[in-house]
Amino acid sequence: MDGAVQALIAAVASFFIVSFLIGVLLLLCRRPSKPPSLAAVSPAFRPGPTLPVASATFDPSISHISMTELAIATKNFSADAIIGDGGFGFVYKAQLTSGATVAVKRLSADAFHGPREFCAEMETLGRIRHRNLARLLGYCISGPDRLLIYEFLPGGSLDHWLHQSDSAESGPGRLSWTDRVAILRGVATGLAFLHEECKPMIIHRDIKASNVLLDAELGARIADFGLARRVDSARSHVSTQVAGTMGYMAPEYREGNTAATWMGDVYSFGILMFEVATGKRPNWPIKGEDGKDVSFVKWAKGMVEAGRGWEILDPWMEKEGVRCDDVDGFLWIAHRSTDESCRKRPSMVEVVSLLNQLPCHSFKISI
């Protein structure tokens, strides 16, 4: 066989091989595609050998929970379902198949270490119950995803009432002096419980207005307690990592002290007291009388020391019936709680006692 014939045979063979491959590709392209599933949209929610799934519930109102149900209930964690943005992740409003409305916190990937430690932590926190703490109803994990299910509180956050709403229903003008004192009494009582009643002690480490949630009658509930790691009593009631938000953070933390203590919580609470009284954000500077910027806490404490506490009250708040002596007593508690020296600050039990001594005719307004 000469070279010309061999070349012809090779060309014909190549043609048939290429034609066959093209035909196979065309057949594959014509196969109907399957509609994308929830697992395809969020592969982290698909259980498998490398993505172990674990869940638990701590409340009889929720008998069972799954990643798939939570993804559906939050519209695959749509931005439209977000109702809060905490230091550990976004919070979504969700309605479960049982009809229950809950708040789902999707923790950031680096919020906790392994699943075993996470589950142990949540099992402990899930058993904690107090009227001034937001109830943890359950949790669910799959691979890197960690979801916490909390009771849904219709009043929203205290931050929203003080700063983010101009509506007649949930604006600063709707919070009377009585309401503000009652809310802070609730927060103080919840913190005192975490510090004194929980064994081992729990230090919150991020007390701020956005971590105070309100029920339909403006009752205060502390959120995110325990998420900054529970404190081991064998370590002298300190943890190894400081958390917090600028404006609320104790000076010893800002100066490099990395040991979180209950005294840091007291300082943050004192800042919250000043914030609730003035309606001003603590992480924004204040224009002083000399035209220069001054820190919020320095301005507030300076006005209290000058006997001008009444002048710093929230201008939106109705002041009729509010006594100057009551305001002064309230602001001096805030002043003591924000002492530069952590050892001079009162404990939260003392703060509760001092707040209870303030005259405050209790009444609640419904939303």
UniProtKB/TrEMBL annotation:
Binding positions for ATP per the UniProt entry: K105
Species: Dioscorea cayennensis subsp. rotundata
GO MF annotation terms: ATP binding; protein serine/threonine kinase activity
GO terms, biological process: defense response to oomycetes
UniProt main location, coarse: membrane
Transmembrane regions: 6-28
One Pfam family recorded for the sequence: PK_Tyr_Ser-Thr
GO annotations of cellular component type: plasma membrane
Topology in the lipid bilayer: Single-pass type I membrane protein
Compartments in which it is found: Cell membrane
Family statement drawn from the similarity comment of this UniProt entry: In the N-terminal section; belongs to the leguminous lectin family. Belongs to the protein kinase superfamily.
PANTHER family: CYSTEINE-RICH RECEPTOR-LIKE PROTEIN KINASE 3
Keyword Membrane tagged: yes
Domain Protein kinase residue range list: 77-364
Keyword list, A-Z: ATP-binding, Cell membrane, Glycoprotein, Kinase, Membrane, Nucleotide-binding, Receptor, Serine/threonine-protein kinase, Signal, Transferase, Transmembrane, Transmembrane helix
SMART domains the UniProt entry points to: S_TKc
Protein name per Swiss-Prot or TrEMBL: Serine/threonine-protein kinase
SUPFAM superfamilies, A to Z: Protein kinase-like (PK-like)
